[in-house]
Amino acid sequence: MSVLPDLHLHYVQACQNLSQPENPFIARVLQEADKNDEISTKGVTLKLAGNNHLVPVPRVTDDDLGVLVSVLGQAAFVTGLDLAYNVLTDAGAKTMATFLQENSTLRYLNLMFNDIGTSGAELIAGALHRNESLVHLRMTGNKIGNQGGMFFASMLKINSTLEKLDLGDCDVGLKCLIAIAIALTQNKSLKAINLNRPLLFSQQEETTVHIAQMLRSNSSLVELHLGKHEMKNFGVERLCEALYKNSSLRYLDLSCNNITCDGVKFLGELLKRNQTLEILDLNANRIEDVGAIYLSEALLTWNRSLQVLSIVSNNITGKGLVALAHTMQFNMQLSHIYIWGNKFDTDTCVEFSELIETGRLGLGCTDVAPYKVDGKVFLAELSHGLAKHRYWAPRCAANAPGAANASLDIVAVSEY
């Protein structure tokens, strides 16, 4: 049974009972939560992230977490817990694992960039074998390694509740990625997974081949992040072959790979036939003008499903960028485009300036803004992009739906 929303009072009492000094940061967040009039009806997410504060805060430790979960054990209205950028270790992971086994209301848990290792990963993944409430878990940046990732792969064979899992920057390896791909051939609940920046030492792209095979049979995954996989044109071809038969994937992240125009040719052919994909992130590859033209041709005549395209830092000159600008004049479905880091010429600046001034392209839907000097049009950078809030979240109001967000806004995936 849930206690009344008086989290701060219970926290003070728990600190006294456990002879643990109060963490003023936790105390302040709990006081703010107590003032929320809708806490008992709509629930609340406690934002205890250790970064993004104007005044430095004492970061949450393993001992702090022990007191906190003793308070939250009876607080059913706490449905989310953001503990990113703190100093939690495997001991804290053990505390959290016990909490997950006993708690049936927590839906969102963010542990990104703590100090959790392999043994902590084993405990948390093990707890999710039985947990039936958690929908979204972020482990980003914890160095759980290949073995730690294997525990999550095993969990995915059993858990049928988790919808979103973030294992980016976790130092997972080849065996882990293959095991996750195999698990997702049977898992029907997971809708989004981040596998960015694994540690791979092979040039054979075995992991991409296995992920492609998974996409042939998986009908639930809508968001897939494969950034920094050292993927080349061979891997892109395998993915495209699989996506001809996939009708669920909406968001494909291939950023920071080794994809050239030859690889984008396969993507262009895919876009002519695939009417499901809505977000395509090709940031930091090398598709150049030829690749940009492949995309523009597919989007101009054939594709009417893609809504977001990121081609940041792809060595594209005016020829390719102008082709995409012309495409946007006819393809009204394409609403977001990110182009910074390429080689702008006068024609590029004029074309994108016209798109923005006529209202065809909103300033919240791109990463450039026009300005004039001596009658000439130039483009300045805006801090927008698909990865804007991947590693941090603003404490104030978030962006408008669909604009500059790292996660799925266009096709919503449960977060809380």
UniProtKB/TrEMBL annotation:
Q: What UniProt keywords apply to this chain's record, in alphabetical order?
A: Repeat
Q: Membrane-spanning residues where?
A: none
Q: Does the entry feature the keyword Repeat, yes or no?
A: yes
**Which SMART domains does the entry link to?**
LRR_RI
One short Pfam name that applies is: LRR_6
Q: Which InterPro entries match?
A: Leu-rich_rpt, LRR-containing_regulator, LRR_dom_sf
* Endpoints of the signal sequence: none
SUPFAM superfamilies, sorted: RNI-like
Gene3D superfamilies according to UniProt: Ribonuclease Inhibitor
User: What PANTHER family does the annotation carry?
Assistant: LEUCINE-RICH REPEAT-CONTAINING PROTEIN 34
The protein in question is named: LRC34 protein
Species for this entry: Daphoenositta chrysoptera (varied sittella)
Species classification: Eukaryota, Metazoa, Chordata, Craniata, Vertebrata
Gene assigned in the entry: Lrrc34
